[in-house]
Amino acid sequence: MPVFDLDAPRRFFLTVRGRTVPAAPVLEQVLTREPGSDDAAYFRDKLGSEWSFTGDDFALLYALENSKDRCEEIGIRMEVPLVASGFATVYRGVFTCTEVSWDLDRCTATVSPTADDGYRLLLEAWEKEVNLLSAPGFNGTGAALQTITANIRNLVGSSDPLQQTGFKVAFKRTDDTAVNDELGVDGWAEFLRNKSYISAPLTGGPVTASGTRDHTVILFRYELHNVALTLEPLSGEYIVPDKSAAGWQFFNRDDSVSPPVASYVKTPEISGFKPYLIGTYNDWKHFGNGSRPKYGNDLLLLPCGQKPSDYQFSNSDYLEVTGPEGAHNGSQLGDSCWPCLNTRRVTTQPNCTSLWWRFGAFRFTRCLPLVDALHHVLQQTAPQLTPPSPAQLSTFLVSALNPATGASGIYNEVPRLCVAAGSDVKRYGASEPATRLLISAKTFVQDLCTLYDLRWDLDPGTGWFRLEHRSFFEARSANTLDLTAYPNATLPGRYKGRTQVLPAREQLAISAALSEEPATGLSFAAAEWVYDGACVNQREGQNRSVRSVSRLTGDVAGMVLSGNALPDEAVVLLASLPSGELYEGNRKVSASELLRRYHRHGRARPQAVFGPTGALFDMASVRPGREQDACTVPRREGLSGLDATARLVTNLSAQAELGKATWDLSTGKVTVVPLLPALASTAEGPLPAERQFNDSFSDQFA
After folding, report:
1. What is the pTM of this model?
2. Own/partner pairs for 384-390, CB < 8 Å, 24+ apart?
3. What is the pLDDT of residues 399-414, one digit of tens each?
């Protein structure tokens, strides 16, 4: 580490229009090193609060102020002499004339410069919006787009979406005389209307042209069954959970089971969906002569009891609207075709059929690897800080062994993560995909950090942007500064609890998500850790910390099934198997799975209850729970070695972390704020001595 000669004068320089000249500013020569944002794993320096320039410095700056070059950046630099020889730069900053306060009476220019480092280059362009869909791959160059497939059973976590438990796509038959009384009631929406002509036969002769129209209307809705009611501790009553935020409407409850359960309904909001309209029998996809299907293979009209596989289609691609496998939903009751649908062509001749809807198979054809998408956004934001290869951005995003969970192979989904435009996922069959999706590096990085508990910095070795899991930064080799080794150190014995960073609940919330599986506790929208006891902040209004994700989401099911309720501007994260099939319905990118698997480091307490299930989990590490009063030591090395990895030894702890540091160059003293580990004693606390009510009382210590 460099050793500074603080008895020798420091040097200051101004750089104006490319030329560097000595300067003599007046300032408080205190260098402050503070941490970056919540997601950052770095510290930045600030020198003094304000710099004042007089004399020749003022004349130079004021002349620039009154020239056509007044908006050019001005550089400043401070150098400190070394004991060995030469000088070392301890601070670089920039400002412009527009940021200066001018006192023409006293000929003084005063300004608070901005630190001139790699972080400035990034942060000043941090909110610049970039078209994600202009990335190589989307425009036919660079990394190839991937196709990811899914089916409805995979998305909703059910072997059969028509089963009577969990999520269900329900259908029912009505007719056009009653449909207006049913639409919008209890979630029912129009699925299909049949207006085909039904002929009447002549007695003993050929079919006549006279007859009637079919009046069949089929409705559909989503249903959610067997949702456990919540027990209210004070009253002992079971309360129906409110699921209106996800669009679910309470339908009924069943108190015959313990605990009681509720059912909910929801109107389908499929992006771009228009009810099917059958105007003639040959609009159906049937397998008789003359079929000219209006909707291609989207609707299959098969003989009652037959399946798509009987005609070389995949059963998993279709839902049965009517018939034996349709749980009697949509059937025409009370006629000879029950439980199938009577799509007769002649009034006296039943035509018993099963109707199948191709809403089981989905192909998302415009998916770009996440690491390539992130590399593109950063390259368009701060090219000089972006590594040449996407793989150099992050070990976490590309490693075969997941550094956070230890998973590998197909169980480590992160290297296979892809992104797609929300509109392309919602309208997966559209002939014209999205071409514009704006997002800033700030939003992209912050959302990724929030989802996976990542942190970022500029790699000290390369100067490139780096994004890694919190565990990576915890494991980095640290510089240790033993404050107790300094003979003239000021080490107070005072500390306080960091209640502001120790909430009783820590929640992960994803805005563009609504799907859930109540039976398993899985939620794409939100999940939380709950910490027990008074060692965390239980105070009202302070007891919950919420980290929100604004644009990224893993809720593919929500996008497909309820697309109108979610924004086109969402960026969908998809986790696939090597085969290209969506992995476990994308559950790995749900809020509950992300919290459980990735948010186990730097928590408030060593153990937490997983909110969705009530299970108790051990945390991998905890954040410092106490803050010691500032400690001061004389240190000729200044702030060298005091960075985000530094560990401090104080009179109160041998494992303190650095909260903040300042270096007063006029005295040579370094002041640090140590963050101490939470106390972890297992000994029982003392009980106060018993006293009688009428004992004499003294408020003095014995």
Report:
1. 0.88
2. 384/121, 385/118, 385/121, 385/122, 385/458, 385/463, 385/464, 385/465, 386/464, 386/465, 387/462, 387/464, 387/465, 390/143
3. 999 999 999 999 999 9
